[in-house]
Design goal:
Radius of gyration: 24 Å
Mean pLDDT: 92
Shape: globular
Strand order of the largest sheet: 1-2-4-3
Number of helices: 22
Distance between the termini: 59 Å
Largest sheet: 4 strands, mixed
Number of domains: 2
Structural class: mainly alpha
Helix content: 55-70%
């Protein structure tokens, strides 16, 4: 629990989460979508936020998380949203340590791995629903690791509820069934198959229940179809930065590399030890993490505890005193009653967030988003703005200003993203695509080459600062 409290404070104040959690403008439309659902008591099935896709089918596949964020925002503003997601990150660290103990990990090794975890996860510390999905991933692996006997009726209902909630919070819900299936397959390959048979059957049953329970969502089986098409559309994903491979040459990437290496090595050691379930899990998530930066936090969350277990088992009797010391530390940790402090810690963090200096800086940073430029946009403008600004414009206007483009890439499609990229880079043919939208104004980053191209076409600047430039078409 101490590690969770330290993580919460670090995330909100040392990491400056009160602002950095909002460095992706998608947080804006998530909040406003949740508020709109609360206001109308209905779920969206068509796009309400853009003029380019207005009225077209839209899968608000993270509506559950949006509603919670919208409710928190309506009550406590962006400071409350920052605290909510910071608390979710801290809860993930608490579950991460619980997973270490469940798999037989060593206490000092777990503490030594904690900085690797935080350095890897903070690249995706954002006020977005995927942070909540980390809790579901950890809970799914923790359940599979601790399940020994046959699946009871009550536990089956619990798995169904868990899977249904996950399906309405984040589109990664299908991984719950994948994880359970991996444990079912892996345990069938272990020595002593008969002793593992109840656990294998329980995992297999959990996988089937998870798949069926995921259908309990506003879109039914169409959600499965949509997610499948989205994740298999390589042309679309190629235009989405977070689905690209991580730049391992970037500053500060050393700890991320170390976390990934440990996860892969732990999987290999688990295979040597006959734990094929853990080895298969490590193979899957390390491969996905190498392919997509978005999976790196999951690799650290799920694979580091399994690596700890494999290392501890390999050490065996050679480090009896060290392992005994670890066991004593775990006993001391289990005697702590940190839960009683949770309300006080949350209240204290919220009080700090309300101090004038931090409150003024909370939210979307003026050096990244058009905070000052927004007031200069005419109410009736048909505005071109990049997806980086789209979510912020939805948030700032409470969803009333129709945007050209935002972060809902599955809604816009691969061809749209391809043409949009051509416009932003002012490549040949950009102007023909631009003209079909009949823009009256353009709001672009201050360093965009599009500014000069538009000015040569007769557009004029009506506002500019170090973050964004607002231009108007000649005659407007």
């Amino acid at each position: 629990m101490v590690a969770a409290f330290v993580t919460l404070f670090y995330c909100l104040f040392l990491f400056q989460g009160y602002q950095k959690l909002f460095r992706d403008s998608d947080a804006g439309w998530h909040i406003r979508n949740g508020e709109e659902i609360l206001r109308t008591a209905t779920l969206p099935h068509t796009d309400p936020y853009s003029f380019t896709r207005r009225g077209q089918p839209w899968f608000a596949w993270e509506w559950g998380a949006d509603v919670v964020a919208g409710l928190v925002h309506r009550s406590w503003g962006l400071g409350g949203v920052a605290l909510f997601y910071g608390a979710a990150i801290a809860a993930g660290v608490w579950l991460w340590f619980r997973l270490h103990w469940a798999v037989g990990g060593n206490f000092p090794i777990a503490c030594g791995m904690a900085p690797l975890l935080l350095s890897t996860c903070n690249i995706h510390w954002l006020a977005r629903p995927h942070v909540l999905s980390w809790l579901f991933f950890l809970a799914a692996v923790l359940y599979c690791e601790t399940r020994r006997g046959p699946l009871t009726w009550r536990e089956g209902v619990g798995v169904a509820v868990f899977s249904a909630v996950w399906a309405n919070v984040h589109a990664s819900f299908f991984f719950g069934a994948v994880i359970a299936a991996i444990y079912a397959v892996g345990r069938s390959q272990e020595s002593g198959v008969r002793s593992q048979e109840p656990a294998r059957r329980a995992a297999a049953a959990a996988a089937v229940i998870g798949i069926l329970a995921g259908l309990v969502n506003p879109y039914g089986w169409h959600l499965y179809e949509h997610v499948w098409r989205y994740l298999t559309d390589s042309e679309l994903l190629a235009h989405i930065g977070e689905y690209q491979s991580f730049n391992f040459h970037a500053d500060g990437s050393g700890q991320i590399i170390a976390a990934l290496i440990l996860g892969i090595a732990g999987g290999a050691l688990a295979a040597v030890q006959g734990r094929w379930d853990r080895a298969l899990l490590a193979l899957l998530f390390s491969a996905l993490a190498l392919r997509s930066a978005r999976v790196l936090p999951l690799a650290a969350l799920l694979l580091l505890p399994l690596a700890n277990a494999a290392i501890t088992k390999a050490a065996g009797a050679r480090f009896d005193k060290f392992l005994a010391y670890s066991a004593r530390l775990r006993i001391l940790d289990s005697r702590q009653r940190g839960w009683a402090l949770v309300p006080l810690v949350l209240l204290g963090c919220f009080a700090i967030l309300q101090t004038p200096g931090i409150r003024a800086a909370t939210g979307f940073a003026a050096d990244q988003f058009p905070v000052a430029a927004y007031g200069h946009i005419p109410a009736d403008a048909r505005l071109f703005a990049p997806d980086k600004f789209g979510g912020y414009l939805i948030y700032r206007s409470a969803g009333r200003f129709p945007v050209f483009f935002d972060g809902r890439s599955d809604l816009y499609g691969a061809d749209f993203l391809k043409q949009y990229s051509r416009v932003m880079q002012v490549k040949p043919g950009w102007h023909a695509w631009w003209e079909q939208f009949h823009f009256t104004h353009a709001l672009v980053p201050a360093d965009s080459p599009l500014i000069e191209a538009l000015e040569r076409s007769g557009w004029r600047r009506i506002y500019g600062d170090r973050t964004a430039v607002l231009l108007a078409k000649s005659g407007t």
